[in-house]
Amino acid sequence: MVASAMFDDIRPYNDDEVRPTVERLLADRELLAAVTQLRFPRAAKPLGWLLRPMVSRYLRRQSAGVNTVLDFQRKVIKDYLARTIDNTTSRVTTSGLEQLDANGAYLFVSNHRDIAMDPALVNWTIYQAGFHTLRIAIGDNLLTKPYVSDLMRLNKSFVVNRSAKAPREKLRAAKLLSAYIHHSITQDRANIWIAQREGRAKDGVDKTNSAVVGMLTLNRAKNESFTDYLHQLNIVPVSISYQWDPCDAAKARELYQQRFGGGYQKAQHEDVQSIAMGIAGQKGHVHVAFGEPLQGDYADNDAVTAELDRQIAANYVLHSSNCFAWQMLRGHPPKVRYSDQHLPFEPDELADEHAQFRQRIAALPQEHRRIALEMYANPVDAKLFENSHDAAQ
After folding, report:
1. Cα within 13 Å of Cα(390), Cβ side
2. Full-prediction pTM beyond 0.85?
């Protein structure tokens, strides 16, 4: 097909490519070493020569029945994602899915706090509700190793070209991405996940980059109305909130270096390490909130950006950690509701959680603590602003 051939460089793998890719992965020495290190962290170095063949046999058994993309995803969900959620969260709650059609095709645009777990949790919640799984946008900066690229594309990830430097090359890549997303929604009837901005909101401020919205509409024909094209994309804002951010210390260190250290230079494969930290770290209560599809009349990209920001802030479920951080910075508790039960925040009733949060912050270097508190507190400011704006209307 001509249409699919256009997207060969960026699309996820098709069913007929799954088994050859699995065989390639099973022979990848770097992947075997990484899995061995993950499963046997203490013994991997001295006994790696002995453990790697065992790991190889284990992976071959695990992948024996994997011949399609759905086979692979079911294996990931059952054997890995379910276990990760059980081991690293106290609970995962959701809201808003009842207003969506499980047989529909949506472009889910979410805030971005964790590289891998944001799309994984959206995927988990919609899969549990009977929706088709996502095609996931992932930057090529994360695909630094061939086996990582293979694993991501087996899991229905498609590639966002962030390495392009020349203006023409960047525009060409953006147009191709825009066409692929539109084709996925309107022709393949596939669900899509994309972050509201490039890179994580390390400071806890969830703001949509208007360039992302601009990219989404690049594929629009000149004679097609902006509103009609936007409605075809079926955009749904998504708000993901974590009680605990497994990467909070690393984010605070990076932000400190940017503000006071003259800049921050990422180490090689640092993003891969952040992925591992985000997956394995404790997250507490996680809530995934789905907003209303953007089916109104929007004059331009800025209007769409504003509506995404409004819904993401309005639907964001605060946790006690957010409220405690705000209280520690301001000296008094915020007048907000928190948790998926929308309870009034009463700090005196949450003494154990308060102590746990204080210990978490106290474990950070002194100079990083205020930045970490701001990271947790900023969603409260967004909620208070949204509440005051609603009250004014």
Report:
1. 10
2. yes
Per residue in 88-101, pLDDT (tens digit) is 999 999 999 999 99
Q: CA 120, 248, 144 angle in degrees (round to 5)? A: 55
**DSSP 8-state code for residue 137:** E
- Radius of gyration of the chain from its Cα atoms, rounded to whole angstroms: 22
**DSSP secondary structure code for residue 335 in this structure:** S
Residue type, 75: K
How many other CB atoms are found less than 10 A from the CB of residue 16?
9
Q: Are 119 and 134 in contact (CB under 8 A)?
A: yes
CATH number assigned to the domain covering 2-15+68-313: 3.40.1130
Structure tokens of 266?
Answer: 């990422």
Tokens representing 94 are 């959701």
Q: What average pLDDT score do residues 188-195 get?
A: 97
Q: How far apart are CA 372 and CA 265, in angstroms?
A: 19
User: Over the stretch 240-295, which tens digit does the pLDDT of each residue have?
Assistant: 999 999 999 999 999 999 999 889 988 877 887 898 899 999 999 999 999 999 99
Beta-carbon contacts of 279 under 8 Å, excluding residues fewer than 6 positions away, are 84, 88, 116, 117
Domain boundaries, the chain: 2-15+68-313, 318-393
Of the candidates 238, 228, 221, 132, the one whose C-alpha atom is nearest the C-alpha of residue 178 is 221
